[in-house]
Design a protein that fits this description.
13 helices, 6-stranded antiparallel β-sheet, Glycosyltransferase, globular, Jelly Rolls
Amino acid sequence: MAKWITSPQFEDLTPLDVFHRERQITDVKNDTENGNSVILFRKNTALVKLPQKAELKVTADDFYRLYINGVFVTEGPAPAYHFRYRYDVVDISKYLKKGVNTFAFLTYYSGLINRVCQSGDRRCGLCCELVCDGLSVFQSDESFLCQKHTGFTASGKVGYDTQFLQLYDSRCDEDGFELPDFNDGKWSKAVYVKNDDHVFADGISKHIVFEKVRPAVVEKRNGALFVDFGGMYVGYLCLKANGKSGEEAIIRCGQELNGDGSVRYNLRANCVYEEKWILSGKEDKLYQIDYKSFRYTELVSDAEIYDIYLYSRHYPFELKAKIRQEFDSDADIKKVFDLCVRSQKYGVQEMVNDCMEREKGVYLGDGCYTSLCNFILTKDDKLMRQFIEDAFSSSFIADTLMSCLNCSFMQEIAEYPLILVQLLLWHYRLTKDKEFLQKNANRSSKLLDSYGRFEKNGLLYDTEQWCVTEWPSNYRDGYAVNNDGNKPLSEPHVVMNAYYINAIRAQNEMQKQLGLPGYKDTKPLIKAFNKAFYNTEKHLYKDGLVSDHISYIGNAFPFGFGLCEDPVFYEKMTGWFAEKGVTGTSLFATFPLLTGFIRTNRPDLIKEAVKDEKAWLNMIKEGATATFECWGADGKWNTSLFHLQNTHIATFISDTDLSFIPV
């Protein structure tokens, strides 16, 4: 790749180290001095003849959007740590013409410490190279022109400092910067980044694609122009307007409607999707930087507004799986399957984001189930392989890995890396890729070594991380062990130890497949586990070593992982399921619960779970076109209405042989 270039504002900045353990007290904070910077670059190049093949290798930190000859081409890159940074290789042959070609780049540095990407680190710039028929035509250098875009002004933030809201002023000098005839005569020369420390790594996953979605409904409603795109998407609102110079348009986006039919732009997920646009008096085009998750839009303006569409962005998706034959004639199960398929298609971005608005980041625990489901549906393992690589790469911060990947927000959740060990075994069982297994089984062995230092007398004690157990907390059925927040764990508990044993069993199976000795004998661990937590009189597990409380959640995990030798326990759990149903669980106990039905040869109970009118069918009843974070919109205080973890049920109702799941 070429050298990194930037604007003079960033030329001399020294990168900041934003990495630390979650419990470590640091002074890492948002880069308010340099944040929300939109830097534009332009480069003209002449082609005597059209090449047979033209590729642009391109990346930026944090973000780029590429235009060629005034036409939008793509954007990226996938978030990554700076020492294994990603770049895109884009076939641009169809965008080129004989003569002068204009390359225009919008780059963006948010400066926010969040779950989206590694920002707030004072790294900002562009790096690119044009290769035509195998020959380098240009590389990013000081011949590029650059200019700070003055049209964008931050008007607030949404989510957990996830993104800035913007006021866009079409009267700015940079409006139309991507057009070939734009006058860039006053722009300055780009400069090389003096303290660049990016190291590139080849990516495994594919580049995102784009889809233009026209509205299903456009009408006047409640004094505004109301737009319904017919379903939930992730992307950008695009439109044009004719109005008076200085006239203001209010733009509101939402995932659902209020009772009066107006757009609920104050999302449940702690995002207020309201922005403003100032018109120039000419034909104006709306520019936006950061994507949103929405279905509806309302536009409050006296201007003429037209050419409205939604530019959907998502990971390439081709459905290869079918619904399981015994479910094919069931209309309700088909609705659930179709909901999950649509959610995977339009929700997955460069990575397996958990929710599409509040955090927009990759959580290790959620991502294990989401990437597995993506593979089951598409039969393409690239996204899962990339996810596994990304997860293990976080070990430079903590040997027990991070919960939020490829970003500057530091969070550690104890059980998530143990789910990753399961995922690695699932990947091997589905692909038989022994080379990939061999590479990563050594990593997972070291990961388990890191957990092993917290083991005492066969039980896992405080791992210096918090444990979700089940989320949100109101789904824990009164789970009695205090495991929330940035605090030491009060006592060993059943859920964490169940995860630990299951991960070791997965590791043993992987090493067996590689012809290696087992990692660790689980018999003493299971014996200690049952002695510590199993109530032989009630035939159920208590929550903790000290607590005597018995919860549905605390028993779902040993049930799913098959840790009890007492057959009465499994009878008790199926009876409890008849009472509590699948909605007695939520994000993290649901998958083990369903796994238990496979293990005990009860596919009928999987069917019951899918057809539970309070679960996925309730989402559909409430109007979902994407899976919710909870069983209903009111399930938690900040419910995401586009959350990918709950697509995992498609794994269980697809035509895949489910025997690969139990460890």
